[in-house]
Amino acid sequence: MSDPHKLAYHALAKALARLPGEVVPSRAMSQAVGARLQPLVARAVVNDLGKTKVSGWAGQEAEGRAVILKGGAVMIVRERRGAGLIRVLDRGRHLGDPGVFQGPGANRKFGTTSRTKSGKVRQVRAVKGKKWNGYTDPQGTWTDALQLMRAAAPAAVQEHVAAGLADKIREVVTGG
Known about the structure:
The protein is mainly α and about 180 residues long. It folds into two domains: about 5-95 and about 135-175, no CATH class; about 100-135, no CATH class. Helices cover about 50% and strands about 5% of the residues. It contains five helices and two strands. A hairpin with a 5-residue loop joins strand 1 and strand 2. Helix 2 packs antiparallel against helix 5. It is rod-shaped, with a radius of gyration of 30 Å.
């Protein structure tokens, strides 16, 4: 007659050999990892500005949102309402030279002041000038957020995979 302990160990070894194939990223695991990485976008904004809201951007907060893709992959994207704000914080705005104000005789075609033959300013139809609010220096905020997420992602994934492995091992050992 065979040793019952030997049979139990053999069954355990077979069950443990199947274990890597059974532990696949679940949607819940991916959502937990995404929830842990999401706040890092706001942290990058706070590191650059000291707050997540910016004056002149009513109702928009710079936040990230986790999107779960096929196969359990997690992608952190800019929150829709704050996407423009994060883009401006990352790359800046109006970085080109605004030029000089041309005055009342500004030519519609070239933007220069029109003059008569004698050199006086020509009377032309008024042109509404483009409003100039200045420029915003690039802060590299989204780049900073990506670096924070790249640093934190392996630990977050490892924690949740380890928890999944522990559950599967417990299930195999207890038989249920």
